Predict the structure.
Amino acid sequence: MALQTQSTRHSGLKAATSLANPVIEWIWRLSLLNLLWIGLTLAGGVVFGLFPATSAVYIVMRKWFVHPETRDQSSIRAMTAAWRNGFWRANALGWALAVVAALLAYALWISSALPGIAGSVAFYGMVIVASMFCAMLIHLPFVAAHVEAGGIRLIRAAWMLALAQPFATLAIAAVFIGLSYLQATAPALLFFASLSPLALVTTMLDLRTFSAAIQRQNR
């Protein structure tokens, strides 16, 4: 009886260890990726480093899922190469969208001050436009990592993806809000879990959508 109990405990410990190891590995990968994102952002002086570093995170994350063998390769080399190769492209697209975001924010502020029914219509209209813009932004980094295309085509593809998968868009937005709340309560998490968990969830959900679309085309 004692031997059976000991064997049961041993098998249970072995099963728990086998489950814990992949979790620990992913926590390590995500933490390292997040630290590299911060480092490469600073390497570009923040202003020119943020968008290429963000793009590099999504490129590496996509490779991890599409080509699992790359998970054992150097994350530092992969991130640095993606950051360098996409430096100008990511900055051009990123800053163009930053200007659009600033104009939308200004339009929201102006419309919120307009009086009467016309002001209310203008404000809520701008809220809808801003929401559509944010929905597109949620998917754009993954689409840019997954598809080789120009800026306009990438934006259109990201918007179509957001429109086709509203629940995935809401799920990614919920993860973003949750991470923002956790980082507000524990600022140290900014170093280890600011962008990489969001990139993980986005990649998992968007890859499933792309795979389903390819399967439908091949039928």
Remarks:
- The mean pLDDT is 85.
- The CA atoms of residues 183 and 189 lie 6 Å apart.
- DSSP finds eight helices and no strands in the chain.
